[in-house]
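Researcher: Next entry in the queue.
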Amino acid sequence: MPSTPLALNDPAQYDQLADQWWEASGGFAALHWLAASRAEHLPPAAPGEVLVDLACGGGLMAPHAARLGYRHVGVDVGEAGLRVARAHGVRPVVGSVLAVPLADGCADVVVAGEILEHVEDDVAVLAECARLLRPGGTLVVDALAATRIGRLLMVTIAERLPGGPPRGIHDPALFVDRARLLAAADGLGLDLRLVGLRPSMRDAVRWVVGRRAEVRMKPIRSTAVVFAGYGRKREGDNRPSTHVPSEP
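Model: Structure for this entry, 248 residues:
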């Protein structure tokens, strides 16, 4: 854990914890579970298809992208995490998710996992997802909802539990307004539906006692805490985004 306290949501925490990315029971354990959940909603790749992984961190999507046959490009501001990702087969790109240094329409799949609640302008990230996707391309996101119960469970409680996220990794003021996100997606030419997620309680108990390496994420009706978004860019929708991204 960091020896010097950092501000809430400080990206430097990820650099300080870079050696934990691939520890199944470390501070990023739940991100392994979410990566597996995202992969369940990705189609197998045709030859040469590209998956762009925004805020890829240490590259936890790598085994799933490889199994599905994608060329895996990871974008992140954290060079320490990108070095870890490269070691797992990710093609690293240093850059902000608010202004991704990749060409329009370069991606068959865009994954933006656990990043929307870490930026000042989540719609700017969504606009970048739309820009990067080819028409008909697949989008998968997951994030934390801007609700009282979401803040209670994911910050007040989860950041104090063994295996939970590192303390201070989230700023609850940045959690995501789901209605705003859906409205923005529609305006950007993305058909997006939201689904709630929670860990399997049975798996979680077995994981805590060391009898299971990973916990499955289960879909639920409520999107009030952790939610995923599954969608596609509309065919023939090549209109440029009118949204001006915030400064990285």
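Model: The radius of gyration is 17 Å.
Researcher: Noted, moving on.
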